[in-house]
Amino acid sequence: MNTALVLVDIQNDYFKGGRNELFQPDKAVTHAEEALSLFREKNLPIVHIQCILLEKEAAFFLPDTDGITIHERVKPQSDEKVIVKHTPDSFFQTELQKHLESMKVTRLVICGMMSHICIDSTVRTAHRLGYEVILLSEACATKDLVWNDTVIPAKTVHDTFMASLQDTFARVIDTSSLYDMV
Known about the structure:
The protein is an alpha/beta fold and about 180 residues long. It is about 25% helix and about 25% strand. β6 and β7 (about 150) form a beta hairpin.
């Protein structure tokens, strides 16, 4: 089975000092870096997704800022594909599907940021398009959300989205389990 790693939006704005700091992004990037090293070691396809928001009201991932730069710990190598997107879904109006099809990829290992938006929408679309999806839970991060004046802690947000994607849309695993699968 031809498997590709898709790293979604692991960009500077989500880290300390960024415009939209997440909960424990360093923990997530450590695990993403582990998956990236494994894929590089095995010479498997790697795709980096980079979000640049174009809406006037956007508060982060603004064009021509350091915030859109892919984090140095998972910085793409020259032979790794970088696909720019402008919406949460990594497939929407991008060349991602065409690129994966050109390599005959049938299974995706996905990780990145944010669990409740871009990871959720990308995983669901990948499943709808017929890919087998493996989601690296600990290599994803999110933030606290507010609903009806109640703060929902980031850990609860993350766990809820992982639980909702598990089985129906993806196989959700820890990064350490990936070694037996690729």
